[in-house]
Each structure stands twice: as structure tokens, then as C-alpha cells.
Amino acid sequence: MVLIRRQKLLISFDRVLASSALHWANSSDSDCYLGRTFPLKSTLNATNNNSPLVAKLQKLLFRRMLVGVNDGRFFLGVFHCIDKQGNIILQDAVEYRNIRRSATSPMDQRCLGLILIPASCRSSCHVDCSIEEQLSLVSLQE
Amino acid sequence: MADERVEARAPLLPSIPSGDQTVWADASSLIAAACNDLQDGELVHGENFSLFAAMSALEIMDPKMDAGMENNGYRSVEEAIENGAAPLPLSSDSTVDVQCLIDIIDHLVACEATWHKGHSLAQTVFSCIYLLRIERTSAHVLLHSYCRIIRATCNAVISAVSDARTHEEEDLFTMAFGLPLKGEGDEKCLSILNSVEETISRQLRACKALSYKKKVLEDVEPLQANADLEEGYCRALLCRLRFRKHFYHVLTCMRKSQGRGLELARKHIALCLSELSSIIKSQEFLRSNVCRSYQDDVEESTTSSGCKPVGFDASLNSRFSAPTPPRAIRILSWKKAIEYFEKLLHDLDVICCFSLESILENVLHFVVQFQDSQPDLVARAHMQLLLVQDGKLYGRDFFYDVISKAIALPEFARDIEFQKNEFVVQLIQLVVNLLKILCTNAAWQRRKLGKILQDWSLFSIQLELALKREFGDMLKPLVDENVCMKVSKHLLTWAEEQTYWIAARFLMLGFKLELYSPNEYCMVYWYMYIILMKLLEKIQLRLSSKGDYRRKGKKKRDVSKDLTRDVLVSSPSILLLQCYISLSEGLAMMLAALRNESKVFEMPNVFNSEQERFIQHFELLQKAHVPDHISYYLFKESTIHASIPIVVKHNYFREAQRISTSLRGSFSGDPGRMQELRRIDQVSEHNRIALNVINKVSAHDPSLSVTFEFTHHPFFAVAVVKRS
């Protein structure tokens, strides 16, 4: 386990380095998005944002979220964070994956923990909610 | 539009249930719209969010992090089997079937060696589809028996390594999550293997009888259809199966408590080695009868025939190795794998030859010598398991006995009080730790040794304080020292001696790991000289007090005189130590003189100063006060006036040579130490000559170039002088 921890730390350390480098290169605060580059400054929480849509999104935090990605896998986890670009972080995530190429194949699952799903590979996104809430979500879209 | 989307996903969603009374609601549009409203740099997150933790999230679809990413291979073992990736029988042609089987066997050996070298089990041995679904193979008796013995062997190796806990650096080794490693009936693997072996040897006998035109006594069905090849294939299979059998025996015998199985293990090791040579001999036959496609590079191939084996796919369970990144690994070639097993068996044989003596000094020497051949993880694990079993040396001798023997405690002092003494208990723990650390790989070992120096020196300090507290001022002449005090004093001297021994080993390992640059050699040899001097001092102190018990009747002065002479003349290990001291001092002074006179080994001042490097290299020693009052300034002071003529006059190397020559008689029965003497002799000789040459031409000569190489000894350099 030591090795894994070290690798993880290394990865995050790399990211800090990369982010600081990029941050200084661009020397603007706008290159702040999840995954690739974090500015070394603390991030802004969107609680002060006045948009009703953002408030709605905020209410979905800590809900179970099911995200599908391009290669057909699904990730089920607790909605932890999202940035302007739509990169999502899920906590206690589980990966679901078809064990055969056919559409009706049974699924195989494994636990992954904290994961980051880049917006570029996200193909679907569902949240666990009651039927009334679903209606209100749909009404918001229109 | 929305309805259409829901329907398209309908078959997927039911398989992942939502909560009670709840449904999966599509949030994509809400997310898209809300993100649009977010400011740059804004994040939607809860109170428990931490940027630092978020950075260590596993990134999906990143090839370096996401082990589950879609590759173009099969999605599961079942799918692979359905698509014929691991056919059973291996071929409808019985000759090809045997060929394929031998390829699988060879590839598995290559995988096993790669695993032992530190890769994950999932990507090496368990890339074999047959092993992943072992029940499938039950109809193919040969393959089935081989798979079973491989699995049992893997289990035995894993348990040895994880029991020894020598694998901290190589922690991929024991990870076997999700692999079908334990199965019912594996304890019968040997009997299955034996019966298979019996069948093949009968087939071999039958075909030999046939070739001599003798009448076949029993009706034996041949191994395969081609009568001309029958003998060759029977032999090739037999040596492979027998190797497996003996190797498994070696592993089980070595685990027997108190080293009881070592003698039997040696016999099996010898048999293993002879089967290995038969396996190598079978290569020619297997190569000449290939009818399938070759691997790209025959020399690098993982099978003896050079063919690609069927039934392997490392990507199938790359997900089991999660959450590590799924790296492609290179399986060792078959040749390298055989070499690996030969080395492993030799290393295990060295362990089996050990006489299991209980004199700690010799045990430490043995382990250090064992490590010289750079044994791999599996051999080191077995070494450690032998040394420390159930908290006893070899599971046989209590450590307090070992320690009391080491400090030459008289019988009457070895009572229960002694065993329960808190310092003795602590010391036992330190010794056990030291033994375990000495069995780890060089890099890990050095790091750990540096750390435990602290513990040892702390122990000495505490013991010293306790001594002072209990017995008042040490300077007061005591008429009659009581036993307890004497015991404590001996413990202290002995612990200090071990501390210096550890420090010396720490410094020497630095050369093995190539941690020093040539312009730092001077300070390293200087420090080594100091440490070795201290070590010598402590050993002499211990040996001189050893006599206290014996020669109580004699007058004190006589005794000490006698002993000093005795000790200096008689003990070969002290003389060897003096050799090392002369060499270290000689090299330190020679390097200092070269630096002072010709500026060749001067520190480039680009990144850090010499003082900074001194601190970097010896920080752990200094923190542990090994020894006290050693500083960079002392180093500078003692080397600043060094000059070549002075070094020549001191004749350090001649002295080392003289001692090593005189030692030959006392070490004649010990090939390891004899070799060490030869090495010392060569290093001294070369350096003495080099020094004379430099002295003659004068070190100022700009055409003179001096380099240092480790051609004769692992940590004593030899000066190479060239003139351009």
C-alpha cells in the first residue's frame, strides 16, 4: 500500500507543480478548473452566486449521482464537487461495467473511492431523487 | 426528445437500482445550464471539500490512472474463453497439444520470475487464463496438475514473503486481491503431480523399449502421436514437472521450524538445479520441432521453443491491480527466467548451508556476506524467516541467551532478573529489528539502518543515565562492584559497539548504492575511519572486561597488560578491522592530499557547499551522536594539512597489506573471508603503487590524472593514475 500512496501523492504533487507552472504562465485567475490545473490560491465557493440554477445544483450535493462515460461504463457515487467546465468529483464511487460486448451483458462492479470525471468524457448524468423532485428538475430545464 | 432519451437508457438503468421510492432523474441539462451561470474559478462543493484531497482523485479515462479504461481486448475472462483465447484441449493434434503445453509451462516460469522480481501477480502469473479458471482444465490432466502446483507454489512464496515482511519496498508482490489464489484440493497438488509424472515416465520407458525393438511389457498409450518425437517430448515434460515438484519441496522444507528441514531442502535444491539443466538441454529439441509461429525475437522469447504461448492475456485482470495505474510490463525472457531460478536456488542453498550458530557476531557477518551476492526478495525473505522465528533466533535460542553470550555474561548472572530487566527487553527488540533490517534490499536497508541508529544511541543514553542514577558518581572508586552494575556496564559497551557496527554498515552501503560522488569520497572515508576506530575501541573494551570474571585473582595491572596484548595479537576479527581502518585512513588522507595539492577533487561550488554535503551525508549519524563531537570543522582541520609526501611516509596501505597477509593463516578455512583478504591486498597494493607514482611525478603536474574505481573491492576505491 505504501507504493500506491506514494504514487497518489506523486500524482497530486505533479498536479500542484503543473498547476502552479500554468498558473504563473498565464498569470490570470481564469485557468481554474478541476482535474488538470488548480491555482494555488484557494478556490471560490459558488455560495455567493445569485443564479437560481446554481442554487438548484448546490442542493444536489451529497446526493447519489450516476454518471455514464464514453466507453460505456457508469460511475455511481456521492456528488462532491463540480466546476464551471462541468468536471465532476464523486466520493465513494463504484464503477459498473459490462463484462461482455453485447448490450444485455451482466455488469461487473468495483469500488474506486474519490474519482474525477472530466466533462469531456461524460455522456450522461443522473441524480437519485423522488418523483416530485424529478418533475421540478424537468421544469427547470424548460 | 426527453422521452426518447429516457427510453434509450431504459435497459441500462434498471440494472443499477436507485434508492427506495426514488428514481434516476436526468441532471445533464441542469448541470449544463448551471455551469453556464458559474463564474470562472467557482466551484460548487460542500463544507467538507478540501482542494488537497480533491487533487488525489482518480481521474477517469486518464490512461495513467484509470485501470478500468476500455481497451481493445476482452472484457472478461468468460468472454475471452468464449472467443477461444484459451482452448481446451490445446489442440486437436496431440503433438501440437504437447508443444503448446510446454510453451505454457515455459511462459509461466518466465512470468513467475518476473513476479519475483517485483511485478504484480495479476499481471504476471495470473495473466494465464487457465490459472484463472483452473476447474476448466480438469480434463487435461497434465495442464491441470501443472496449474495446481503453480498455484500452490505462489501461495507458499506469498506466505513466506508476507510473514517475513521484507516486502515493504516491493509491496506489489503480495497483492492478490480478486485472484483465485486459494482453491480446494491444492494440498493434493503433489500427489496429482506425482501420478502424472509416473505416467509420463512409463510412456518414456515404453517408447525406449520400442526403439530397442523390445516387446512392450505393458500397454501404454503414448504421450502424442508422432513416435519419432515421443522420447524428446516425454523428457522435456518430465524435467519441467520434476523441477516444479522439487521446488515446492524446497519451499516447504525451508519453512520447517528451527531450521530442521534445511538438510532435506539442500537435497531438493540440488535436484532442482539438475532438472533446470535438463530443461536447458531440452531447448535444442524443442526449437527443432516447431510448427507454429515464432515470437518476434527468439532470443528474447518467453518460451524455450520460441513460440508464442496460448492462453495468456495480461489486460484481462489489469482491473485487479487497481488502484495502481495499469502499466504494461515486460515479462522476462525464458533464458533470464531460468538464470533467475538458478540464482535463487544458489542463494537458498547458501542459507541452507548455514551452521545456525548462536554467536551473534557470526550471525551478523553471515547475513552481510549473504547480502553481498545481492539475493532477491524470495531468498531474503527465507533468510529472515530462518533467523527470527517466534521471537527466538532460529526459533531455537532465546535472544537474552544470545545477548548474554555476546557480552560474555557469567552463568550466575543469567537469571530471571536479567531476562526481565527492562534494558535487556529493549535490547532484544533492537537486535531482532536489526536482524530483520539486514535481510532487506540494500536501499531499504540503508534507510532503515540510518533510522535505527537513533534507537540504539537512545538506548545507550538511557542506560548510561540509569547507571549514574543508581550507582552515583562513576568516578568514585567502588570497592566491590555488584553484579547488576557490571551487567549494565557490559550491556552499555556492547550496545555502543553494535551502534558503531551499524554506522559502519550504513556508510559502506552508500558505496554499494553509489550515493557518493568522487569528490565526497574523502569525507566518507574520513568518517568511516572515525567510526571504525570507535568500533575497535569498544570491542577492545568489551574483550578486556571479559577477562574480569576469569582472572579475578591476578593483580589488576597485569591483567590489563596481558589482555591488551592478547586481544591485539590473537583476535583475527580485530586485525581485520585494523585493516579497514588503515585503508580508510589511507584513502581519506590520499584524497585530501590530492585535493590540497592538485585541486583535482575539489568541490564544485555550484549548488551546495562541501559543508552542506557533509551534513546531508552524515545527518543521521550526527543526530544519533555517532560519535559525539564530530563536525565538518574537525574534518577540515584534520585533512587540510595532508600532503602526498606525508601520506607516503605514513604507509597506511603497506600496513593494511601487512595485516592482511598475517591474517591468511587464521582465515584459511573460510573462503568468504579469504576472498576479502585478497581484495584488501589488491586494493592496498594498487593504491600504494599509485601513491608512489604520484609522489614521483609530483601531484602538481597538470598532465597527471587520477581517478578512483571500485574494481577490486565494493567499498574501498583503487586509484588509477594516468598521464596524458
From TrEMBL, chain A:
Residues 56-117 form the Sm domain. InterPro entries: LSM_dom_sf, LSMD1_Sm, Sm_dom_euk/arc, snRNP_SmB/NAA38-like. It holds the Pfam family LSM. One of its GO terms (cellular component) is NatC complex. Signal peptide: none annotated. SUPFAM superfamilies: Sm-like ribonucleoproteins. It comes from the Eukaryota. This is Sm domain-containing protein. It comes from Dioscorea zingiberensis. The lineage of its organism: Eukaryota, Viridiplantae, Streptophyta, Embryophyta, Tracheophyta.
TrEMBL record, chain B:
GO terms for cellular component: NatC complex. Residues 351-719 form the NAA35-like TPR repeats domain. It comes from the Eukaryota. Keywords: Cytoplasm. InterPro entries: NAA35-like_N (IPR057983), Naa35_N (IPR007244), TPR_NAA35 (IPR057982). It is found in: Cytoplasm. Its main location: cytoplasm. Residues 41-182 form the NAA35-like N-terminal domain. Belongs to the MAK10 family. This is N-alpha-acetyltransferase 35, NatC auxiliary subunit.
